[in-house]
Amino acid sequence: xxxxxxxxxxxxxxxxxxxxxxxxxxxxxxxxxxxxxxxxxxxxxxxxxxxxxxxxxxxxxxxxxxxxxxxxxxxxxxxxxxxxxxxxxxxxxxxxxxxxxxxxxxxxxxxxxxxxxxxxxxxxxxxxxxxxxxxxxxxxxxxxxxxxxxxxxxxxxxxxxxxxxxxxxxxxxxxxxxxxxxxxxxxxxxxxxxxxxxxxxxxxxxxxxxxxxxxxxxxxxxxxxxxxxxxxxxxxxxxxxxxxxxxxxxxxxxxxxxxxxxxxxxxxxxxxxxxxxxxxxxxxxxxxxxxxxxxxxxxxxxxxxxxxxxxxxxxxxxxxxxxxxxxxxxxxxxxxxxxxxxxxxxxxxxxxxxxxxxxxxxxxxxxxxxxxxxxxxxxxxxxxxxxxxxxxxxxxxxxxxxxxxxxxxxxxxxxxxxxxxxxxxxxxxxxxxxxxxxxxxxxxxxxxxxxxxxxxxxxxxxxxxxxxxxxxxxxxxxxxxxxxxxxxxxxxxxxxxxxxxxxxxxxxxxxxxxxxxxxxxxxxxxxxxxxx
Length: 532
Hints:
- This protein is α/β, with parallel strands linked by helices.
- 31% of the residues lie in helices and 21% in strands.
- α1 packs parallel to α10 (242-256), α4 packs across α5 and α17 (469-477) packs across α18.
- The longest helix has 20 residues, at 259-278.
- The model has no long low-confidence stretch (mean pLDDT 96).
């Protein structure tokens, strides 16, 4: 989500913000940071500003201010005392600068207060261009040490990109490409983004210096916070007005974001609706099979009224949406779930544990039996799948077979595919996540093949993956030349260069058409209920 810092005083001194907010909305900005909410600001004014932004469709973050260790809790939370009980969003991030003194103790005190009051708040400690005593030094190391030492789930780092670029330019001119270490990036929960005009910060993007791509590369997969633009409007006049600076900067930031960052926004906005729609395929008691996709390779089925699923996993939707936390209740009527292999986008331990108390029976490959029992699933609700051994369950016949998840070089994991039939229903083949397209399965042709797109390891290298489309298509057509569903697309747990998307689906579709023009090809949309 893209955010923009706006001066808090704009919302208290009568400044006309309507035009700026309209501009932000038109540019797809979803969050506004109130900068800076100081200890002496009136709580009712903070609440009024927040409510105004909520009513205009924005989420908010807060740039707070801490004077000393002793006053930290009051400094941050006194002006928020009216806001927090009336919060209209799941969580609120508050960013603070380091202080002179013990910053670990400071963020720990803030964390303790949050836990005591049960506030849905995170604290982000921001790296600055100088140390708290105004001397030159490594602020990144300072905030990382404090946050790592505190090691609290509600405490992280605000990565100020412009301030870091300043530090590198001023203090490390011989190493301009220097980036923080791996642990730093794991702790980032918020950002401040602005350009560098020589050694002056908070300037617009695209005109002034900032290695934005390099920084976004490190955040692209697994960062769920706001990409927050932080310009200093008084500093950039008379060259820039707030409107012209934002019109210049927001598109630069938006166009620089990785695909997975944009996908997170799509999941955040839509997943609960997708999941709710998918559950409707269980509402039918009619004969036949209806299914719906809830994740890239997670399926819900109704077969002659039997409710079942395959490889249900939520991945990053657990962080981005509400409904995964309610999975035990929402999936309480599921009669059984089939599991294929142990990768976490198929075998999600947290989901299995939350379903363990339900009536659901688990069909589990023999090599995963001990693992699922270790998650607390009752052995009486575990049915072991063995290749060639048909399992008859709730009127559905399930035939496991060895799948080709191992590459030709031997790298991979054990996996079983499944051939599934039921009286009066079309047959379905689930080859699984195929890595070796040379192996042939001795199975009857199915009415439908659920084909998972995978074309080597780098989805960004067209020269590498395009030659694989034909062997992939030929392999899937061995399971069905009638109907093929394409899945394993837009998985929100993968970085851009390992994510399969529409262009890959179109390429394999073309290969299928070349080999078998009569085959129907379809990409199921999440939440779409499809009658077979």
